[in-house]
């Protein structure tokens, strides 16, 4: 990987790590569901008018938009609002690699090598340590929401792999078009119209900056650069940089939010990152299933699958 591309990979990982701190700041200005809805609305509009719809079935866009945008991020923002620390959130979410592997076995009939099962076991021990750490300092309900969010993220990864979008940026923009309406409706029902009106009335430059960062910098710029790197290099060369996300997340939360780096949290970090590394990078699939006839192109050939890793952001 060339030095510029190496720099871009680390930069995106840093942006996605710091993004959890920015989310925490934004939650001081918006109710969580409203903040999530605005994040995707600003990410999608006006970008959706500038990029062509990805050449995948509309159903995949809606399905991933619902699982990733509505479920995963709705749970992340709500969990953090209820007390889940930003740094620990960036770490615990990485268990999505375990859920992705499990769902790939169930839905895609993939067979995993033994080293990946070892990685899953190590990561789950890390989750147990993280739960212990959170239980000593905060509500386990919020922790459970982040685990559920990781599960929905794993589902979204499998759906994205099946959809095989050829352009990561266009895919991100069009998927971002799905969550706003259901999230706005959920915000009205759960948070009430008054909470949204107060948030918009009291909006200040800090709140606007947080919204623009999570929408344009972390989402549009981050995924645009990530898609470029995946087109230029093998996924196996790019994917390991996502392991830096919780490193930047925990360090930035320590620096900017004063979150403690306790021995329990650091132990959980070592176990989780190590387990995720083994799960995600510990050898390829033992068997690749034959594609469904419906996945073949008009010339009868199976289209080439683009790398579809869906890192956090």
Brief digest:
The protein has 313 residues and is mainly alpha-helical. Helix content is 70%, strand content 0%. It contains 14 helices and no strands.
Question: Can you describe this structure?
Answer:
By secondary structure, the protein is mainly alpha-helical. 70% of the residues lie in helices and 0% in strands. About 8% of the residues have low confidence.
List keywords for this structure.
70% helix, 313 residues, mainly alpha
Gyration radius, in Å: 19 Å
Q: Work out the helicity level.
A: 55-70%
Span of the ends, CA to CA: 22 Å
Beta fraction of the residues? under 5%
Global shape: globular
Kindly state the number of beta strands. 0
Low-confidence stretches: 285-309
Question: Averaging pLDDT over every residue, what do you get?
Answer: 87
The SS-based structural class is mainly alpha
Oligomer: single chain
Question: Number of helix segments?
Answer: 14
Major beta sheet, specifics?
none
Q: Which sequence of SSEs, written as H and E, runs from N to C?
A: HHHHHHHHHHHHHH
